[in-house]
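User: Show me a protein chain along with its predicted structure.
Assistant: Here is one chain, sequence first, then structure tokens.
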Amino acid sequence: MAILEKIGVFAFTKRKNSNTLRVVQGSSTPPMLSKQDLILKLELAKFPKFRAKQIMAAIYQQAVDNYDEITTLPKELKEYLKKNIGIMSLKPVRSMVSKDGKTEKALFETNDGQKIEAVLMEFDDGRDSVCVSSQAGCQLGCKFCATGTLKFGRNLTYEEISDQVLYFAQKLHKKDRHVTNIVFMGMGEPFMNYENVMDSIRNINDPDGLNIGARHITVSTSGICEGIEKLADAKIQVNLAVSLHAPTQEIRQKIMPIAHKYPLEQLMKAIEDYIQKTNRRVSYEYVMLKNINDGEKDATALARLLKGQLCHVNLIPYNATGIQGIEGSHKNNIKVFSEILKNRGITSTIRMTMGQDIDAACGQLANKEARVKSGSANQSK
């Protein structure tokens, strides 16, 4: 949600708590607003500000996707809203549901034609978790990641991030369920789009909005030290996850180019400072890659690296992406790796694999869509 005025092919939006304007390229319909922005927009149009709460409740809590369905609003206001404030800033392009029905992946198109993805995971324990993207594409080029093979587009606006959650919230509402958890583990590096990510978190966390508690929101970074430092001072109780994926600088820089800019020693110092400031546990993401980072010596090195730290390690079976030279570890290797960590005092969980039959790893669906379009274009020549 943001205040938008259409001018040609651009839309200008006033940021919360700011007098500056940012440009959203390609907007054709102004997206939904944060509560503060919505109140201001309504007041400028001579509507009472209490209507903002009614609109927010209808869209975020009752999952209404059409203004005509909001019975508490007068006709004049409905018409104004339809012309000036779109409910969604994203266009759903396609979605895929896993055979067991527990995972759904959606591909969206932004107003300027960028393709992004989000995934809904429905767990047996009642959690309904949404994995969101923070950028269209990614600049980091991790060797095992499908998103890294895509051309980088741009940072997503906070509306576009929030609307990935809203899309699935509307779907879950029909099942009498609701989104319980958010993970910023989709396309892009959240801390390279820090302000929009934080604005989206505040929007998602708003009691009059989706009302998802900060402690149920996890932001994952590949190791942007400045972002970790900012989050430590942000006074918001979201969870921090770090995509570590290697126990040594030598291995990490081979599979994650960002490690050249932020060496492991510098990254671990930033994490230690974060823990000291916040007293919050850090989660480490560690994707298990055959003959790259999954040996017993790697497990021993990881345990040594994390010794004494307030942390937890998520061991992630690799969701095959078709990237040449990259394979997932054998199940037995992952179990042995986990046991070594346990014996050395490091808690870990082997993450449940979900959505393997629908290309649920980040970037896979967008990659497939790009290949289809490329093939169609070549055939038409």
